[in-house]
Amino acid sequence: MAKRLAGKTALVTGASRGIGRAIAQRLASEGATVVVVARSVDASAGNPGTLNETVALIEANGGRAIPIACDLEQQDQCERLIERASEAAGPIDILVNNAGLAEYVPLADMPIDLFDRTMMHYLRAPFILIQHAIPQMKARGAGWIVNIGSVTAQPPIKPYNVFDTDVGSTVYAAAKAAVNRFTQGAAAELLASNIAVNMVGPSTAIVTPGAARYIPEDYPGENVAYLAHTVVEMCHLPAAERTGLVTHSMHFPAAHKLDVVDLDGVTPLPPAEIPAWSHPAVNPSGE
């Protein structure tokens, strides 16, 4: 199978576990050299998974990955990340803004610093990284930026369910809704430079170490490989052909009848099917 991202360098934030790790594995399986980023290379901050483990998984599958520790909450570290990554692996062709802070607290009880940290992770940090990546992408004549979103960006459905009334997801969801608009606006601004900007989010919920506490044990979560494959689909076509999309992991492959493969880049997966319980406002095509 041809490796569509051979010769490309990708940077994935929040890549020590969960969705970020899966995206990094899938990009590497398509031939990209992947710079994987998290707060620490070999520590987990209480959650399972480290960057070293992500690198080992990628290398075991024949790929190449370079770990870089960076705390995106520290502005000086965030501002230097693109430069550090390009020094280690070459100019950045693909930027995946995945790192996040999923702390659900009702509005009445949320500390202002948690509000600020949520917005920093989903808007401020991606803004800084994109600003610093643009010159490299322009110099290379192309670039691909993928922001990882969430189906919670869709409006709550009446009558409201317990997730909307009691869990405290409003600020997180509002930040993710802003990510969608940020993606579309950035796509418009960068189209002339052949830099594609798209959003990929889960169609329903993916059980990860960071999100498991908010997902019922019996919830039929989806396979993260579909999301990782959809990210790859956002990272190889010219911007004139695919940019400004708000896509979702099961919806997009189903709508376009794509053949999806697992994180190894080889093993076929069953055709994507849009879950019956997914949000009705999601546009399958991403347009």
TrEMBL record:
PROSITE patterns: ADH_SHORT. It comes from the Bacteria. Pfam families: adh_short (PF00106). Belongs to the short-chain dehydrogenases/reductases (SDR) family. SUPFAM superfamilies: NAD(P)-binding Rossmann-fold domains. One of its GO terms (biological process) is monocarboxylic acid metabolic process. It comes from Sphingomonas lycopersici. This is SDR family NAD(P)-dependent oxidoreductase. InterPro entries: KR_dom, NAD(P)-bd_dom_sf, Sc_DH/Rdtase_CS, SDR, SDR_fam. Residues 8-203 form the Ketoreductase domain.
